[in-house]
């Protein structure tokens, strides 16, 4: 399923440079490298046990459900007419992701809980992002639409990094690889959709406010990176050391 291009409603403005992910330098670059290496090793451990693999799948399912809820509750009811079609396409793809991960959980003989809550770290990050969106909304003529899509774009960029790392770690032969490749393709499209929406909704005089908002959103994401990576690694190792723990779908991943 693809996302249709937006209808042209006003002349195209100059590209917003702040929408590009900043290049990490110095300590930030070292921290990003460290988080990536820890999470790759964590994924290796998690996929070698059934419980670890189920934890990964449930984390993916919860993340997709959170995006689905945001689209349904925060955007669809108040979005302008020109955005409704794009939200419908985006929502349909997120709902398909939910079905894909739910099916993978069911294939492993585990119950599927569509109302499961995020882990503590993810819940804190989401709460801070929501508070940030409400705080910055008055700075934009389009109101909360802009900060919601700013947070959404950063979340989709994060999801793209996460799924790409996942694909590279487990390899093409893993039974989960086709699902992750499909999700990765969709997440790339969602990033482009969020960028296009912000490009259209933000007025030229609001670009500095958007840049400040994005800096805060990305800082929150980075702030939880090391803790999240260590939590994943500890969980993967704990499952591997647990006596009698069944192997994952491809224990040699």
Rg estimate, integer Å: 19 Å
- State the end-to-end distance: 30 Å
Total strands: the figure is 0
CATH architecture term: Up-down Bundle
The CATH superfamily label reads Heme oxygenase-like
Number of domain modules: 1
Beta-strand residue percentage: under 5%
Helix content: 55-70%
Give the CA-based shape.
globular
CATH topological fold name: Heme Oxygenase, Chain A
Low-confidence stretches: 1-12
Q: Mean pLDDT across all residues, rounded?
A: 89
The CATH class assignment is Mainly Alpha
Number of continuous helical runs: 8
Report the sheet with the most strands, covering strand number, pairing sense and barrel closure: none
Structural class determined from secondary elements: mainly alpha
**Topology as H/E string?**
HHHHHHHH
């Amino acid at each position: 399923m693809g996302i249709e291009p937006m209808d042209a409603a006003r002349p195209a403005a100059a590209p917003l440079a702040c929408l590009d992910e900043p290049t990490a330098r110095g300590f930030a670059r070292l921290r990003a490298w460290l988080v990536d290496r820890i999470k790759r090793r964590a994924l290796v451990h998690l996929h070698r046990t059934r419980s670890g693999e189920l934890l990964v799948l449930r984390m993916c399912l919860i993340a997709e459900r959170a995006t689905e809820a945001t689209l349904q509750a925060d955007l669809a009811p108040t979005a302008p007419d020109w955005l409704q079609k794009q939200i419908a396409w985006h929502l349909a793809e997120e709902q398909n992701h939910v079905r894909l991960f739910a099916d993978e959980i069911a294939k492993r003989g585990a119950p599927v809980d569509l109302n499961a809550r995020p882990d503590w770290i993810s819940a804190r990050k989401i709460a801070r992002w929501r508070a940030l969106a409400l705080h910055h909304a008055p700075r934009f003529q389009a109101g909360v639409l802009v900060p919601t899509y700013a947070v959404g774009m950063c979340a989709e960029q994060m999801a793209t990094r996460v799924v790409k790392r996942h694909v590279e770690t487990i390899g093409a032969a893993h039974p989960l690889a086709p699902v992750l490749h499909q999700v990765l393709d969709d997440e790339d499209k969602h990033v482009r959709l969020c960028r296009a929406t912000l490009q259209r909704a933000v007025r030229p005089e609001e670009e500095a406010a958007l840049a400040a908002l994005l800096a805060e959103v990305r800082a929150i994401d980075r702030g939880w990176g090391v803790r999240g990576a260590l939590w994943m690694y500890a969980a993967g190792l704990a499952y591997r050391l647990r006596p009698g723990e069944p192997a994952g779908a491809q224990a040699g991943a």
